[in-house]
Every structure is written in C-alpha cells, then in structure tokens.
Amino acid sequence: MADVIVLGAGIIGLTSALELQVRGAEVTIVTADDPADTVSAVAAAVWYPTRIDADPRVLAWGTRTFEIFKGQTIDRTPGVTMRPTRMKIRHDEDTPWWAAAVPDFAAHPGEWHFTAPAVEMVPYLAHLRARFEAGGGTLDRRRVARFDDLDGAALVVNATGLGAARLTGDQRLYPIRGQAVVVANPGLTTSIRDEHHPLGPVYIHPRSRDVVLGGTFEVGDPDLTIRPETARAIIERTTEVEPRLAGARVEKHLVGLRPARHGGPRVEREGRIIHAYGHSGAGMTLCWGTAEEVARFVEGQGLSRSG
Ligand SMILES: Cc1cc2nc3c(=O)[nH]c(=O)nc-3n(C[C@H](O)[C@H](O)[C@H](O)COP(=O)(O)OP(=O)(O)OC[C@H]3O[C@@H](n4cnc5c(N)ncnc54)[C@H](O)[C@@H]3O)c2cc1C
Fold it and tell me: Which of 71, 177, 228, 257 gives a 20 to 30 Å CA spacing to 215?
C-alpha cells in the first residue's frame, strides 16, 4: 500500500511526489490527465511570480525553487536553463518584493535586468515522471470525484490545480485564461517582458528551438478554444517590441487556464489531505518550494497556513 497518494500530475503534483519519494515515502500518483496534457505543459515557463501577491510564504517557495532550478542547470537536467531577462518598466516602481530571490537583479532607467530559470515543460515533466517511476512510483490514470474514492493510502496530496474547486468546494479558485503563440526562433536568447505595453501584455521567451510569444491574462474566462484574432494581436505587439520576430514561422498555438486563487496558493493540511493548489501564473516558479512544504506537512512539521 502507498504511504501517500498524490492527486495530480502537473508540476505541483510531480515535484511533490518526487520530494516525498526521496524522503522515503511510497508514493502513487493518481491523475485524470497525462502530464503532457496538463496546464503545466502549456506554461512558457519562466521563473517569475506572475499574477501572485507578495507574501512571505510565496517568497520563500520562489527562492527555494530558483535555487533548485539553478542547481539543475549545473546538473544539465533536461529542459532547464538560466535565461537573461529584460523587463520594461513604464512607471516609476520600487524594487519588487520578489527581487530578494534573484541574485543579479538590477534596476536600470526604464528597465529591470535579471537572470532567471526557464524550463521547457514538456521534456521537463517527462523527466520528472521518468525519475518518479525509476524510483518505484506508479502513475494511475483516472479522474476521481471525491477524496473518499482514494482509499489506498493514509495521506493524500491534493495537487489538482483548478480541479480542486470541484473536489473541495473552494470558492476562492478562478481561472485566468492565457493564450500564447510559439514561433521558430530567429536567434533570440534574452527574455523580454513588457506587462503594461499599450497594446496588451507582452512576453517573449526564447527556448532552445522556438520562442513563446504572449500573452493574455483573461480573468474568469474558462474558454480553451484558440482565438485567431488574439494570436494575431500577440504576434503584432511582440514583433513591435522585438522586430527580429517579423515573419517568424508560427509553429503552435497554446491556451491554458492558470489556477488563480484569492488569498494565494492553498498549501496546508486538513486531516489526511495536504492541499497544494492555486498557484496562478507561477506554478513553475513556486513548485520545488511548495513540494518541500508539502513534505514538511507529511512529516508533521509544516507551519504555513493558507491565505
Ligand atoms: C499560457 C500560460 C503561461 C504560463 N507561464 C508560466 C510561467 O512562465 N511561469 C510559471 O511559473 N507559471 C506559468 N504558468 C502557470 C502554470 O502553468 C501553473 O501555475 C501550473 O501549471 C499549475 O500547476 P498544477 O500542477 O497546480 O496544475 P495542473 O498543471 O493543472 O495539474 C493538475 C493535475 O490535477 C489533475 N486533476 C485535476 N482534477 C482531478 C481529479 N478530479 N481527479 C484526478 N486528477 C485530477 C489533472 O489531471 C492534472 O494532472 C502559465 C500558465 C499558462 C496558461
């Protein structure tokens, strides 16, 4: 019998399962979707606390996650790299709260510069799954309607993202729709952010072979169809910011629903359930720190409370 069932195989479920496994737990993952079909597989995915409020817990999880990804670049973990970033600042802003996690953060006139982890999620999720299975873990594909359906373990980690709304009745969860376009990389190596561009939010995230262009933050919109007019607008404004994108071949369209939550992520223990959901636009940014927190709750030492 498993010691712990982790419900969910997105970035929060997989990292939690691995963290528990290395601490000696017998872990089974139960998931409705293959890791490659989760919201996590859609993420751009660059370390940055997108659409998440300042909170000491979040800063601690983000700082740990940054450190762990940085270590993984040294170990040459598949899909992980450190990416220089230029972020356009259109109004006078104080040093952001999250800069404490970023060793080389530097404020220049009109721009912030920093280097942050960037992860190609499809190979990275596949790598995490392979590590989990090589460690003796099993992944069971099925959707559950209630926690009582999970009777094979003493403890359950609820890493179901937006799916937690149905399982727990949590009314604070809501989707933030994100659409993005993947184009062939014309030779870009620096990430660019311009959140307050007059035509809409801009992010340009180069990867090994392509570039993710974004994006949208549509609060409360659960629609997963690709909107061609949105894609055209994203290409137009990202090309205005980075003219080398002109004419780049479109390879793919992405859409996903960020699991946002009023009050921030819920990471806390409730009886035999350890909740770990609601990471909004920052699941990759907070994953390893969250996984360590989950492991502390499993070991009975967790201190955090949900917001
Ligand atoms: C366009 C876009 C760009 C993004 N860019 C970034 C970025 O640059 N950096 C960053 O940090 N984050 C980014 N994000 C956010 C990030 O994708 C999410 O925060 C993250 O994926 C949430 O992970 P999760 O594991 O909580 O949820 P998910 O990936 O949604 O996984 C949930 C899991 O739970 C399972 N599940 C749900 N309900 C049930 C059930 N009833 N029974 C069984 N299984 C169930 C699902 O099958 C799935 O396996 C982006 C998101 C989008 C949409």
Answer: 71
Which residues have C-beta atoms less than 6 Å from ligand 1? 7-13, 30-33, 38-40, 42-46, 48, 143-144, 159-161, 163, 167, 178, 180, 215, 254, 256, 258-259, 277, 279-285
Domain, as residue range, for 108: 4-298
Q: Which atom of ligand 1 is nearest to the CA of 277?
A: 26
Ligand 1 atom closest to the Cα of residue 180 is: 1
The pLDDT tens digits for 26-60 are 999 999 999 999 999 999 999 999 999 999 999 99
**How far apart are alpha carbons 216 and 227 in whole angstroms?**
11
Ligand 1 centroid from CA 273, angstroms: 19
Give the pLDDT band (50/70/90) at residue 306: very low
Q: Dump strand ranges (E) for the chain.
A: 4-7, 27-31, 80-88, 106-108, 111-119, 138-141, 155-158, 173-184, 191-194, 202-206, 210-214, 218-219, 250-261, 266-270, 273-277
Total domains in the fold of the chain: 1
* Ligand 1 atom with the shortest distance to the CA of 178: 1
What is the number of the ligand 1 atom nearest to the C-alpha of 39? 29
| 303 domain-assigned | no
Q: What is the CATH number of the domain that holds 288?
A: 3.30.9.10
**Percentage of the chain modeled with pLDDT above 70:** 97
Tens of pLDDT, residue by residue over 211-231, are 999 999 999 999 999 999 999
| Percent of the chain whose pLDDT exceeds 90 | 92
Which residue out of 39, 85, 226 has the highest number of ligand 1 atoms within 8 Å of its CB and is therefore the one to mutate? Answer: 39
Contact of 200 with 216, CB cutoff 8 Å: yes
